[in-house]
C-alpha cells in the first residue's frame, strides 16, 4: 500500500478543500506550527481506511468542521500496481442525526509508477538543486512535470482520469471486507507498524509480547495458515468422533441365533390367527348395536306423543281465562306509548317554568355589575391622561442634562489624555536609562561566534557516524568468519542426521505395515474362533433333532458324540491360533510404538539442525549485507565531509576502511566539547538581540509619547479642571433623579393602562352575559309552547274510555299500567293463546301416531330389545382384546426387523471403519504440520528474525553504533513474538527490556522497528511499502537528529513512501520535498515547497 493523494474538506480544521499529493518523491516532510492540522491528515487516512481516528471509532460527527455540515475525505493509494481511491463522507442533518457514505473506486487505464524515475537522482536532481539555490521554483516546474502543482499538489501525469466503483463497497460490511483483503491490516496493526502516531510512536513497544505477536501475525498474514490448520483439525476431530461412534455402535450390536429368529416368526403367526377371530366377533356386535338403537328410538317417540296428548287435553279446560288475558294485553300495548308521551311533556313544562324564574334573577344581577364597572373605567382614563403629561415634562428636562454632560465628558477626556501622556513619557525615559549602551556591537560579535560553532557541529555528526560504522565493520567481518565455520559444521551434521533418519523411517514404515497385517490376521482368527465356539456350544445344547445340520446324516448317539468331540477340538484349535496371533500383534504394536517414538525424536532433531543451519546461513548472508552496507555508509560519510576533515581521514578514499584511524574517540570527544558551547552562545545571542530590540523599541516609544503629549496640550481648553469635574458630578446626580422619576412614572402608567384594559374586558364580558340570558329566556318560552301542542295531539289519538282517566294521570299511573303489561307478558299469554288454538284441532292425529308406534315396537326380536350402551360395552371389551392382539403382533414384527438389521449394520459399520480410519490418519498428520508449533511457528520466527535484522541495521546508524536489539528466546507456539531486549555497546552490562529505555532511546528503537517491519513487509505478498512518523523527533539531541535525517535519506531506495511530520524548522529544512501547514482565519491551508 503506497499513499498517493489525500483530499479533505470540512474535516476538523480543514474547512475548505485541501489536496496533498505524494506521487513525486519517496520522502515527504509535513511541517508547520503545533495545532496547524498536520496530524489531522493521518486521522483522515485512518478514517478513510478503517473508520477510526485518534478519538476512536465513535463520534464521527465530532470530525465535521464547526462551520460546515459535511465532511469529505478522499485517499488515493496503489496496491499491487493498481491505483485505488477510498471516499468517505459524513453529513450532519437538521435533526442532529448523522448520515455517512463510503465507496472504493478503481482507476481505469494505466497507472503511473508511484516512485520517482531514475532521472530524478541524476540530471533532474541537479536541476532542482540549482534552481532551489536561486529560489526559482517556476523554472523547475517547467522542466519537471511530475513536481508541478501549487498548494494542492496537482499532478500532470497525463493519465486517464476515469474511475469505476468497486461493486458492493457502498455497504459497510463489504467495504470493511475489501479493506481487510487489500490492506491486510486492521487499525491497531496499522498504527503499530506503519503509522507512528503523535505521542504514541512507542505503541508497539508498549504492547505485551502477545500483543506484538498479533501484530506480526497480521503482517505475515498468518490467518491463512490458521484457517487451513483449523479446517484440517476440525476434520480430524470429526473423523475421530466418527471412529469412536462406529466402535461404540459395533460393541452395542448383538448377534442373532436361528432359534431366536424362528421363535419370533411362530409368534407372529399365532397372534395373527387370534386377531382375526376377535375382529369377526366385533362385526357381529356392531350389527346388534344398530338394531338395539332403533328399538330405543321407537320407545322414546311413543312416550313423547303420549305426553303431548295429555297436555292438549289439559289446556282446553282453561280457554276462557286465556282469551281474557290476551284481550287486555293487546289494549295496553296500543295505549301505553301515547300515555307516556303526555306524562313526559307535562314534566318538561314544569322544568321550563323553574329555569325561566332563575334566568330572570341572573339578568338583574348582571345589569348592576355593568353599572359599577362603567364608573371605574371612566376614573381610570382620567388618571392616565394626567400621568402622561407629567412624563413629557421629565423627558424634556433629561434631554437638557444629557447635552451638558456630553460637553463636560469631551473636555475631561482631553484632560485625562494630557495626564496619561505625561506619565507614559516619564516611565519610558526611566526604562531606557536602565538598558546598557551599544547593544548592536555585542550582537554582531556573538553572531560570528555562532556561525563558527554551527559548522563544527554539523561535521561532528558525520564523523561520529564514520567512526561507528568503521568499528562495526571490523566486528561484522570477524562475525562473518565465525558464522561460515558454524554453517559448514551444521551442514555436515545435518547430512549425517538425514541419512540416519531415512533408515529409521524405513524401519518404522515396515513395522507399521507388519502391525497392520498381524492385526488383520488376529481379527480374522477372532471371528473364526468365535464361530467355532458357537458351533460347539450349539451342538452341546441340541435336543429333539433327528438329523445333523452339518452333514445331513441321521443323528445317532455315536454320530452325536463324534460330531460333538470334533467341534470341541476345532474350537480349541481356533482359540489357540487366536492367542498366538494376538500375542504376535501385541509384539508388533510395541515395536511400532518404539520405532515411531524414535522416528519423532529424530525428526525433531533433524528439524532443529535444519533451523540452526538456516539461522547460520541467514547470519552469513546478513553479515555480507552488513559489510556492504557499512562500507557504503563509510563512503557516504567520507564524501559528506569538508576538505579539511577529508585530508585527516586520507588524501583519497581508503581502500580498506578498517585500517583508517581518524577520527578516534579522543578526536571526537575534543570536537564535541568545542561544539557543546553552541547552545550557550545561542542563548547569549538571543539575550543580546532581545536587549537591542528592546532599546530600539523603547526609543521609538519615547519619541511617540512626547509627540502625543504636545498634541494633547494644544487641544486643551482654558479653565480649571477641578471645577469642571465638580460640575460634571452635580449634573450626573441630577440626571439620575430625573431618570428615576421617569422610571416610576412609566411603571405607574403601565399599571393604569393594564387596569383600564381589564375593566374594558370585564364590561364586554357582562354585555355578552346579558345577551346569553335573553336568548335562554326566549328558548324556554318556545319549549313550553311546543310541549302543550304535543299533549293536545296525543289526547286526540286515545280511545274514548281512556280520555277521562288521563286528565289527572301522572307518572305513578303510567308505571302501574306498565307493570300490568309486564305481568301479562311474563305469564306467556300470547304463547298460551297460540297453543290453545293448536290444541283445538290436533287430538286425532296424536292418537293415530300412538297406534302406529306401538305396532313398530312389537316387531323387534327379544335379543334386540336391549339398551345400546350395554351392546357398546361388549364392543369395547372386544376392541380392547383386538388392540392387545395388534400390539403383540407389532412387537413381534418390530423384534424381527431389529434382528434383520443387526447383521446388515455390523457389515456396513466394519467397512465404514476402515475408510474413516485411513482418512483420519491423513488429516491428523496434516493438522500437526499446519499447527502453531510447526509451520506457523516457523513463519513467525522467520519473520521476527528478519525484522530484527532490518531494524538493527537502522538502529545501529540511528544510535551511533551504541544500541542493538535481540530476541528473547520464545516459548513453543506463536502466542508471543518480538519479545525484545536492548543492549548498549558503550556502557556494557546485560541487556534490558525495551520498556526500561530512556525516551530518546525508545523513540529510536520504535522508528527502527517500524522501518524494519516496513522493509520486511515490502517483500511479502501484500507489501506495506510505506511508513509514516508523526512527530517524536523532539526527544533527540542535535547529533541524534542529524543521524536520523541521514538514515531517513538512505531509506529512499528501500521503501516507496516515507512520510514525516515535524514542527521543528531545523529538522524540516533538511528535506527537499514537502508541504507547509498554516492556520488562516481558523482554517488549515496547505502549500507545497521544493528546496
Automatic annotation (TrEMBL):
Tell me the InterPro entries matching this sequence. Answer: P-loop_NTPase, Rad50/SbcC_AAA
GO BP terms, alphabetized: double-strand break repair
Q: Does the keyword Coiled coil apply?
A: yes
Q: Please name the SUPFAM superfamilies in this protein's record.
A: P-loop containing nucleoside triphosphate hydrolases (SSF52540)
Write down the superkingdom of origin.
Bacteria
The UniProt keywords, alphabetically, are: Coiled coil
Q: Where is the composition biased (Basic and acidic residues)?
A: 123-140, 353-373
Q: Name one GO molecular function term.
A: ATP hydrolysis activity
Give the coiled coil ranges. 398-466, 571-601, 678-708, 742-776
Recorded hits in Gene3D superfamilies, A to Z, give: P-loop containing nucleotide triphosphate hydrolases
User: Keyword Coiled coil: yes or no?
Assistant: yes
Which residue ranges does the record assign to the Rad50/SbcC-type AAA domain?
5-256
Q: Which Pfam families match?
A: AAA_23
Query: Which stretches of sequence are listed as region Disordered?
Result: 94-162, 353-374, 711-737
| Protein name (Swiss-Prot/TrEMBL) | Rad50/SbcC-type AAA domain-containing protein
Amino acid at each position: 500500500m503506497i499513499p498517493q493523494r489525500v483530499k479533505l474538506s470540512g474535516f476538523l480544521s480543514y474547512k475548505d478543500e485541501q489536496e496533498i499529493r505524494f506521487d513525486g518523491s519517496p520522502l515527504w516532510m509535513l511541517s508547520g506550527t503545533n495545532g496547524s492540522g498536520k496530524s489531522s491528515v493521518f486521522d483522515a487516512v485512518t478514517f478513510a481506511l478503517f473508520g477510526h481516528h485518534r478519538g476512536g471509532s465513535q463520534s464521527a460527527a465530532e470530525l465535521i468542521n464547526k462551520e460546515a455540515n459535511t465532511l469529505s475525505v478522499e485517499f488515493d493509494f496503489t496496491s499491487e500496481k493498481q491505483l485505488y481511491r477510498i471516499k468517505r463522507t459524513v453529513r450532519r442533518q437538521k435533526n442532529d442525526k448523522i448520515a455517512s457514505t463510503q465507496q472504493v473506486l478503481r482507476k481505469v487505464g494505466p497507472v503511473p509508477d508511484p516512485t520517482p524515475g531514475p532521472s530524478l537522482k541524476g540530471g533532474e536532481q541537479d536541476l532542482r538543486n540549482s534552481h532551489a539555490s536561486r529560489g526559482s521554483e517556476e523554472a523547475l516546474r517547467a522542466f519537471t512535470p511530475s513536481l508541478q502543482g501549487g498548494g494542492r499538489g496537482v499532478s500532470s501525469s497525463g493519465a486517464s482520469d476515469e474511475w469505476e466503483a468497486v461493486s458492493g463497497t457502498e455497504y459497510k460490511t463489504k467495504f470493511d471486507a475489501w479493506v481487510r483483503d487489500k490492506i491486510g491490516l486492521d487499525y491497531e496493526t496499522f498504527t503499530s507498524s506503519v503509522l507512528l502516531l503523535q505521542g504514541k510512536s512507542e505503541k508497539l513497544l508498549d504492547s505485551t509480547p502477545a500483543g506484538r505477536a498479533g501484530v506480526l501475525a497480521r503482517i505475515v498474514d498468518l490467518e491463512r495458515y490458521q484457517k487451513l490448520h483449523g479446517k484440517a483439525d476440525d476434520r480430524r476431530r470429526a473423523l475421530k468422533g466418527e471412529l469412536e461412534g462406529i466402535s461404540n455402535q459395533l460393541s452395542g450390536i448383538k448377534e442373532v441365533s436361528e432359534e431366536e429368529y424362528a421363535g419370533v416368526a411362530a409368534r407372529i403367526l399365532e397372534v395373527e390367527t387370534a386377531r382375526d377371530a376377535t375382529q369377526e366377533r366385533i362385526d357381529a356386535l356392531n350389527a346388534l348395536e344398530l338394531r338395539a338403537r332403533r328399538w330405543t328410538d321407537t320407545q322414546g317417540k311413543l312416550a313423547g306423543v303420549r305426553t303431548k296428548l295429555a297436555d292438549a287435553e289439559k289446556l282446553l279446560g282453561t280457554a276462557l281465562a286465556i282469551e281474557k288475558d290476551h284481550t287486555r294485553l293487546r289494549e295496553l300495548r296500543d295505549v301505553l306509548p301515547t300515555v307516556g308521551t303526555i306524562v313526559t311533556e307535562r314534566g318538561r313544562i314544569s322544568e321550563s317554568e323553574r329555569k325561566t324564574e332563575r334566568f330572570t334573577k341572573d339578568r338583574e344581577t348582571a345589569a348592576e355589575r355593568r353599572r359599577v364597572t362603567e364608573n371605574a373605567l371612566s376614573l381610570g382614563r382620567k388618571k392616565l391622561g394626567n400621568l402622561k403629561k407629567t412624563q413629557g415634562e421629565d423627558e424634556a428636562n433629561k434631554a437638557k442634562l444629557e447635552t451638558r454632560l456630553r460637553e463636560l465628558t469631551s473636555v475631561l477626556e482631553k484632560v485625562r489624555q494630557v495626564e496619561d501622556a505625561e506619565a507614559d513619557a516619564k516611565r519610558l525615559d526611566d526604562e531606557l536609562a536602565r538598558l546598557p549602551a551599544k547593544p548592536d556591537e555585542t550582537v554582531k560579535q556573538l553572531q560570528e561566534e555562532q556561525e563558527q560553532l554551527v559548522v563544527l557541529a554539523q561535521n561532528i555528526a558525520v564523523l561520529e557516524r564514520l567512526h561507528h560504522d568503521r568499528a562495526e565493520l571490523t566486528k561484522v567481518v570477524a562475525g562473518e568468519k565465525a558464522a561460515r565455520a558454524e554453517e559448514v559444521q551444521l551442514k555436515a551434521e545435518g547430512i549425517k542426521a538425514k541419512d540416519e533418519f531415512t533408515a529409521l523411517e524405513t524401519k518404522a514404515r515396515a513395522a507399521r505395515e507388519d502391525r497392520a497385517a498381524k492385526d488383520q490376521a488376529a481379527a480374522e482368527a477372532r471371528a473364526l474362533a468365535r464361530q467355532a465356539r458357537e458351533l460347539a456350544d450349539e451342538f452341546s445344547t441340541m435336543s429333539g433333532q433327528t438329523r445333523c445340520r452339518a452333514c445331513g446324516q441321521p443323528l445317532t448317539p455315536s454320530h452325536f458324540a463324534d460330531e460333538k468331540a470334533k467341534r470341541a477340538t476345532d474350537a480349541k484349535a481356533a482359540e489357540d491360533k487366536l492367542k498366538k496371533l494376538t500375542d504376535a500383534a501385541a509384539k508388533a504394536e510395541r515395536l511400532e510404538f518404539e520405532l515411531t517414538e524414535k522416528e519423532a525424536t529424530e525428526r525433531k532433531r533433524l528439524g532443529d539442525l535444519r533451523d540452526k543451519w538456516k539461522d547460520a546461513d541467514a547470519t552469513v548472508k546478513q553479515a555480507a549485507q552488513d559489510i556492504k552496507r557499512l562500507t557504503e555508509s563509510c563512503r557516504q560519510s567520507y564524501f559528506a565531509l569538508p576538505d579539511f576533515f577529508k585530508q585527516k581521514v586520507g588524501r583519497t578514499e581508503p581502500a580498506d576502511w578498517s585500517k583508517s584511524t581518524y577520527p578516534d574517540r579522543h578526536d571526537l570527544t575534543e570536537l564535541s566539547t568545542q561544539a557543546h558551547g553552541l547552545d550557550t552562545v545561542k542563548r547569549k545571542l538571543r539575550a543580546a538581540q532581545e536587549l537591542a530590540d528592546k532599546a530600539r523599541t523603547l526609543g521609538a516609544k519615547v519619541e511617540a509619547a512626547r509627540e502625543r503629549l504636545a498634541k494633547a496640550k494644544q487641544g486643551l481648553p482654558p479653565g480649571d479642571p477641578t471645577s469642571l469635574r465638580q460640575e460634571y458630578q452635580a449634573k450626573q446626580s441630577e440626571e439620575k433623579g430625573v431618570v428615576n422619576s421617569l422610571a416610576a412614572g412609566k411603571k405607574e402608567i403601565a399599571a393604569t393602562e393594564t387596569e383600564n384594559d381589564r375593566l374594558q374586558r370585564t364590561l364586554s364580558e357582562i354585555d355578552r352575559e346579558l345577551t346569553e340570558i335573553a336568548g335562554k329566556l326566549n328558548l324556554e318560552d318556545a319549549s313550553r309552547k311546543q310541549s302543550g301542542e304535543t299533549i293536545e295531539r296525543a289526547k286526540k289519538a286515545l280511545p274514548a274510555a281512556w280520555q277521562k282517566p288521563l286528565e289527572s294521570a301522572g307518572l305513578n299511573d303510567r308505571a302501574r299500567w306498565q307493570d300490568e303489561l309486564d305481568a301479562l307478558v311474563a305469564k306467556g299469554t300470547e304463547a298460551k293463546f297460540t297453543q290453545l288454538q293448536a290444541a283445538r284441532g290436533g287430538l286425532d292425529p296424536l292418537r293415530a301416531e300412538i297406534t302406529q308406534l306401538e305396532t313398530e315396537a312389537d316387531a323387534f326380536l327379544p335379543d334386540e330389545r336391549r339398551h345400546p350402551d350395554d351392546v357398546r360395552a361388549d364392543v369395547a371389551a372386544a376392541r380392547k382384546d383386538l388392540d392387545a392382539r395388534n400390539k403383540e403382533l407389532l412387537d413381534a414384527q418390530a423384534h424381527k426387523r431389529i434382528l434383520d438389521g443387526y447383521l446388515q449394520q455390523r457389515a456396513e459399520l466394519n467397512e465404514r471403519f476402515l475408510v474413516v480410519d485411513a482418512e483420519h490418519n491423513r488429516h491428523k498428520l496434516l493438522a500437526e504440520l499446519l499447527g502453531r508449533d510447526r509451520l506457523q511457528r516457523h513463519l513467525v520466527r522467520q519473520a521476527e528474525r528478519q525484522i530484527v535484522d532490518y531494524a538493527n541495521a537502522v538502529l545501529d546508524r540511528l544510535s551511533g553504533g551504541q544500541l542493538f536489539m535481540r530476541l528473547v528466546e520464545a516459548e513453543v507456539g506463536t502466542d508471543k513474538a518480538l519479545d525484545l531486549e536492548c543492549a548498549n555497546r558503550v556502557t556494557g552490562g546485560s541487556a534490558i527490556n525495551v520498556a526500561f529505555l530512556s525516551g530518546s532511546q525508545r523513540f529510536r528503537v520504535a522508528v527502527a522497528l517500524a522501518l524494519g517491519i516496513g522493509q520486511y513487509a515490502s517483500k511479502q505478498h501484500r507489501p506495506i511499502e510505506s511508513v509514516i512518523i508523526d512527530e517524536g523527533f523532539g526527544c533527540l539531541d542535535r547529533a541524534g537528529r542529524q543521524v536520523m535525517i541521514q538514515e531517513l535519506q538512505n531509506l529512499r531506495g528501500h521503501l516507496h513512501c516515507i512520510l514525516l511530520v515535524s514542527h521543528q524548522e531545523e529538522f524540516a529544512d533538511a528535506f527537499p520535498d514537502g508541504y507547509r501547514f498554516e492556520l488562516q482565519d481558523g482554517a488549515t491551508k496547505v502549500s507545497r515547497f521544493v528546496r
